[in-house]
Amino acid sequence: MRNYKFITAILALSATAVFSTHSRAEEVGEVGVDWFGNDIIIEAIPDPKVEGVTCHVAYFERGIIDRLQKGNWFEDPSNSSIECRQTAPITIGDIDLDKDGEEIFKSSRSLIWKKLVVKRIFDEKNNSLVYLAHSREVQSGSAKMSISVVPVYQPKQLVAEPAEQ
Question: pTM to 2 decimals?
Fold first, then answer.
C-alpha cells in the first residue's frame, strides 16, 4: 500500500513538471472552473522576433483530482484560444517568411506526444501577422485551433493644411 502512495506522489509531481509552460510565457490569469482543481490558464507571450506584439493564450489545465479520478494522468485537453495585439510600436526582426510560418511558443499537453503550439505566419499580400494556436500530436492531429491577426501598417502622418486667408 505504501508503494502505491509513493508512486502516485511521484506521478503527480512528474505531471506538474511536464505541464509547466515555456519560460517565455508569463501567467497573467487563472480561473477555477470546478471543485476538482481544473483551471483555465491565461498566459502572455511576447513574440520573440516581432517587438510590440503580445499574444494571450488561454488553455484548460486539469487538476490532480480530475487526473486521478479519470485515470488519464498525463494529458490535458487540446482546446486553446489565442488573441494577439499590438502592445507597442512594431519592429519586425528576422522572421521566417515561408508559408508554414515559424513556431514562437510550445508547451507540453501530455507526457510525450501532445503539444500546444503557437505559430506566426506573415501574410505579405495583406501586410499582416497571423498567429495560429493549435495542438500538435504524433498520431492523430487535432482540428481544434484558434487564430488571431495583427495588421502591420504605419498610420499616415496627418499634415495640417495651411488655413485659407
Answer: 0.72
Establish if 33 belongs to a structural domain. Answer: yes
Cell numbers for 34, please give them: 470546478
Residue 11's pLDDT is 40
Q: Which residues, in sequence order, are CB contacts of 127 under 8 Å at separation 6+?
A: 151, 152, 153
* Grid cell for residue 30: 487563472
E strands in the chain: 26-32, 39-46, 50-61, 80-92, 102-108, 114-123, 128-137, 145-151
Domain extent at residue 115: 2-151
Give the whole-angstrom CA distance, residue 54 versus residue 87: 6
Q: How far apart are CA 43 and CA 33, in angstroms?
A: 17
In a domain, 165, yes or no: no
Q: Output phi, psi for 74, to 5 deg.
A: -110, 25
- Which of 104, 35, 108 minimizes the C-alpha distance to 76? 108
Asked if 80 and 95 touch (Cβ cutoff 8 Å), the reply is: no
**Number of domains the chain is built from:** 1
Give the tens place of pLDDT for each residue, 81-118: 999 999 999 999 999 999 999 999 988 777 667 788 89
Alpha-carbon gap, residue 33 to 37, rounded angstroms: 8
